[in-house]
Amino acid sequence: MAETNDKAEKSLQPSVAIDGIRIRTIRETKKLTQLYVASVVGVTTDTISRWENNRYPSIKRDNAQKLADALEVPLEEVLRPDSPEPEEGSTQPPPTPSKGQRTAVIAIVVLLVTLLLGLLLFFVLRQPVIPPSATRWTPRFAAPGEVFPVQIKVARQPGTQFGFILREKLPAGARLVKSVPPSSSSNSEVKWLVPSGVTPITASFTLQIPATFPPGKDAALKGEIVIHSAGSSNRTEAVGGSNAIHIGSYHWADSNGDGRIDDDEIMPAYYICEEMKGLGLDWKTIEAIWSGKGYRWDAKHGYTVLK
C-alpha cells in the first residue's frame, strides 16, 4: 500500500519548463560533459541530450533542481520564463507506420499515378489529328533514266483561304521534265507560287532519275509549304505523304513490282496519265505491257514487252 502511495505522489510532482539551449550553453561554458551531468542527475546521457535539444521541454521539478545543482547554478538559470509545458515524455515522435499501412499508401499512390496517366492519355488521344496541308504521291518504283510522275495535293477548304509557296527538293541528279502549274526550277529544287484561294490545288510534275543512279537504292524527295493567310504571319509545314521511290528494273505503273501491269494497276495508271497529259508519260508503253504478259527492263533497251 505504501509503495502505491509513493508512486502516486511521484506522479503528482510538479513539472517545470526548461530551456535546453541555455542548459547546453552553461554546461559547455563550465566545460562539463553530458556524462558527468547525467551521473549527477541520475539519468542517461541520451536524456541529457534530449533535454538540451528541447525534446522534453518540461521535466519534473526535482530533476530540474538536480540538473541545476550539477551545473552549479540556481534553478532559475535552467528554466524558461514562459508558462509550464506538458509533463515529461508527453512529446513523443510520431509512430512508425506499420508494413500494412505503408503498403496501403503505396497502393494509393500507384492508383493516383495510373489515373493521372490515363487522363493524360485520354486528352492526348482526343486531340484532333491535323492532316498535312500538302501531301505528296509518288509511285513505289521507277527505273533509272525513265520518266515517272509525282503529285502534291494542297488541301484548301471554304473558310480557310490562303496562298502558298511550295518547294520540292529533288533527288540528287534528277531532272524536272515538266510541271503543272508552271514552276520555277533549278538543278535541285522546284518551286510554285500560288495566290490566295479556297480551291484545292494539285502540283503535278514528271521527273527523270539519271541513268547512272545505282539500282536497288531509294531516291528521296523532300518539300515544304509556306502558307500565307491574310492578317497572320507565314506558317511553314513539311510536305507529307510518300517521300522515296525505289529505283530498279521496274515500271512506275507496276505498283507491286512483279514485272507486269495487271487489271488492278492499269486504271490508276490511266487516271494519272489523263491528269498529267502532256507531261511526258508514255501511256502507249503502259497499255502494251498490260495487254502482254509483262515486261523486262535493261539500261540499254529500256522496256521490252513480253508477248
Automatic annotation (TrEMBL):
Please report the stretch or stretches of sequence annotated as the HTH cro/C1-type domain.
23-78
- Would I find Protein biosynthesis among this entry's keywords? no
Q: Which UniProt keywords apply?
A: Membrane, Transmembrane, Transmembrane helix
Region listing for Disordered, in residue ranges: 78-100
**Segments passing through the bilayer:** 104-125
CDD domains, per this entry? Answer: HTH_XRE (cd00093)
Would the keyword Transcription turn up in this protein's UniProt record? Answer: no
Any Pfam family from its record, for instance, is HTH_3
Q: Which PROSITE patterns match?
A: EF_HAND_1 (PS00018), HTH_CROC1 (PS50943)
Record protein name field = Helix-turn-helix domain-containing protein
Organism annotation: Geomonas subterranea
